[in-house]
Amino acid sequence: MTESVVTHCVAYLSPAGTTKQVAEVIVRHLKPQGIDPLIIDLSAEDYSFAQLEGPCCLWLGSPVYVDHILPQVCRFISSLPQGQSHYAAPFVTWGAVCSGVALPEMAQQLAQQGWQTVGAAKVLAVHSSLWQSRHPLGAGHPDAADLAQVSLLVEGVLQKLKSALPQPLAEEVFHYLSAEQEQLSWQKSLDKAKTMLGEHQPVVARCDGCGACVTACPVAAIDWRDNEPYVTERCIRCHQCTRLCPQQAFAWDGAAVEERLRRFAAASEEAPGTEVFV
Hints:
The chain is α/β, with parallel strands linked by helices. It contains nine helices and nine strands. The longest helix is centred in the middle third of the chain and has 17 residues.
């Protein structure tokens, strides 16, 4: 097999923009190799696999939320066509707290669909919940050095795809956390976090019905009910609505959020940084 006969697809979900930034770097490094990949923004959830025939390589990106990938990415994986000669290079962006089990989770779900993981990366990024902080976790990332690591991922995967039988990553590659930390990460979930944090709805008295929150939501989680925005269960708590509401209609205690995240980061054994596995 050579990479010239492989169909490439770059798919990502990027509420705050950093996962998209990494995806764009991957695309920029594929094109000089004569590869024009299919690009899928998972926020639309309007994708077709008609072009993914024969040998395929999927570059799949998700931010890490509560140590996991996002539900929309899980749904995308479960909808992938099954078959042989399907390869994947999952990548995640994480905000210097813990990358958790996002990469092994993606690799496992991809394997269930018959896609072999031949490369992966966890890319450090500024924490998306700390837009009010003067010194947010992951500040300045992904930087040039992080994105240079991404280019090495592309080079390594393309080199592997030249082989008649590209070798998938060994399972132990994904156990970069201690067994205890990994177990704690598996026990976490976005649903549990949403329950703990309580309801996320705009304060109606502050809302002027401008619709900025509806437009800002990357997963179409905000509906109109009785001429007022209503946050549905699809919400992933990315807080783009909170950040971009001109009337500050969504309650937000930035100082408390930062204190909690810094406490979690201090308790994490994972050194903040970008790492590539090929």
